[in-house]
Amino acid sequence: MAGRTLETLPFDNSYARLPDAFYAKLNPTTFSSPSYLVSFNPAAAALIDLDPSEAKRPEFAGVFGGGMLAPGMDPLAMVYSGHQFGVYVPQLGDGRAILLGEVKSDRGDRWDLHLKGAGLTPFSRDGDGRAVLRSTIREYLCCVAMQGLGIPTTQALCIVGSDDKIYREQIETGAMLLRMAPSHVRFGTFEIFYYRKQHEELKVLADYVIDQHFPHLRLAGDRYGRFFAEVVERTAKLIAQWQAVGWAHGVMNTDNMSILGLTLDYGPFGFMDDYDAGFICNHSDHNGRYAFNQQPYIGLWNLSCLAQTLLPLAEKDVLKAGLDMYTPLFEQEYLKRMRAKLGLQEERAEDDELIRDFLGLLQESHADYTIVFRELGTFSSNPGAPNERLREHFLNRDRFDEWAARYGARVRGECSRDDERSVRMNEVNPRYVLRNYLAQTAIEKAQQKDFSEIERLLTLLQSPYSEHPGMESYAAPPPNWGKHLAVSCSS
Ligand code: AMP
Ligand code: MG
Q: Is 366 helix (H, G, I), strand (E, B) or coil?
């Protein structure tokens, strides 16, 4: 039923029924100045059968601005810990987010309604429990962008703003983001019980996650090992997809790693403009721990942290075997995605090298990752075809010609037609991604209370593979001011 109101959303709060050790129950704290709706995402509302006209009611900004509860909500802050930049921090937890409750849709799937920026919790440590409008817009738009690209992600329902002042490097305004996911359990949720030696709770958590999200494993005798193997697979595939679109997560700490293999917790993140394998999207990441080309390895590192927590439940050898699957799974998925980006349908041994050499050319030419891959769809495989527009992106034209000859031969070798290949490539090489400068423009307008740019990007990013007539400029490389915007952990 697509017509649910705030009052008739059916809540079934399974997490709130877990033992007390899993959370602190508390209500959100609303802003001190009035709240107003900044943006609403009807596609996310449809996931919970919420009538989109509900967004027009003042109660909507009331509920998702933390000022009132809808019937059936049972709010709580989840506890977890995690490895931050490689160092174990014994307790983190939702320091500024509150799980309002879980809605069960008519299709039977379950969605956490998680309100970020909802005030202090027992896990706030030195923080103020708030989120700024800037980072909220970035997370909101990137959830939409990832979903549009077909990459597993949390979803974003709405942003509610206020004129409350928030102190970061500068004074900013506060906002709340309503985020949705089938679960917000992280690797760090397992870590806290393991390191506290609460093995009973650890088992409750593992059984809960399996019961809710891996139901086919419920009755399996070796369920914990198999569960881990599935998390390995999801994580490997997720990171391969990030890599294929040239996207990096700026804070791949284990507390930001979803147990469901979703992209979770968008703080500093970035789509690359110019291709750079060493791209660091987080200004605060001085050592480049989470540099673009480190992310596949960090995925493995994080999974080994998770494996450690499962030692009380599964055989060491089984967990080790699960971890050993990561690299081949990642490589297989990455190669599959990159072959598709090159429009190749058959698998050939030389493909790996063809792809690597192309990336090498992009790197030395500082060529725009998204634009060049899209342009590659226009490649003519006729021997001797000049492919002028594509060629212009490369500094060393001879090296490009040499590569293009190999690529042309490879394409002809599988008898693909250029026009058909072009259509296929446009389905996997996005025309539009959420470049930092596009997000920045939407943020600056929103800070002046003009939310129109958020709406424009919302529509655009929902179908990033399509042409949007009149919006060509959104596919352009960044202007000079937007090339190296510093994005830090401060949010
Ligand atoms: P993050 O790096 O955003 O994933 O956050 C790491 C931890 O810091 C989590 O426990 C967050 O809830 C907490 N945190 C981040 N910002 C704030 C804030 N402004 N107030 C309270 N807790 C915060
Ligand atoms: Mg986090």
A: coil
Residues 117 and 192 in one domain: no
How far is ligand 1, taken at its centre, from the CA of residue 313, in Å? 30
Confidence at residue 2, expressed as pLDDT on a 0 to 100 scale: 65
**154 and 130 in a common domain:** yes
Q: Of 166, 184, 202, which residue is a domain's last?
A: 184
Q: Does 168 lie in the same domain as 40?
A: yes
Which residue owns the Cα nearest ligand 1 atom 17?
Answer: 127
User: 68 and 172 share a domain?
Assistant: yes
Phi-psi region of 38 (alpha: psi -120 to 50; beta: other; left: phi over 0): alpha
The pLDDT score that the predictor gives to residue 385 is 94
H or E element at residue 235: helix 223-245
Whether the full predicted model's pTM is greater than 0.90, yes or no, is yes
Instruction: Indicate if ligand 1 lies below 6 Å from the C-beta of 256.
Output: yes
Residue range 236-251, pLDDT digits in tens: 999 999 999 999 999 9
Q: Are residues 148 and 44 in the same domain?
A: yes
pLDDT by residue (tens digit) across 143-155? Answer: 999 999 999 999 9
The pLDDT value given to residue 23:
98
Q: Is residue 431 part of a domain?
A: no
Give the atom of ligand 1 at the shortest distance from the alpha carbon of 129.
Answer: 20
Distance separating alpha carbons of residues 290 and 248, to the nearest angstrom: 8
- State the residue range of the domain holding 288: 188-336
- Which bound ligand lies closest to the C-alpha atom of 491? 1
Least distant ligand from the CA of 81? 1
The yes-or-no answer on residue 255 being catalytic is yes
Which residues, in sequence order, are CB contacts of 307 under 8 Å at separation 6+? 228, 319, 320, 322, 323
Catalytic position from the list 164, 255, 265, 368: 255
Backbone φ/ψ region at 150: left (φ over 0), alpha (ψ -120 to 50), beta:
left
Domain count, the chain: 3
Determine which helix (DSSP H) or strand (DSSP E) holds 338, and give its type and residue range.
helix 326-341
Residue with structure tokens 């990030």? 242
Residues of the chain with pLDDT under 50: none
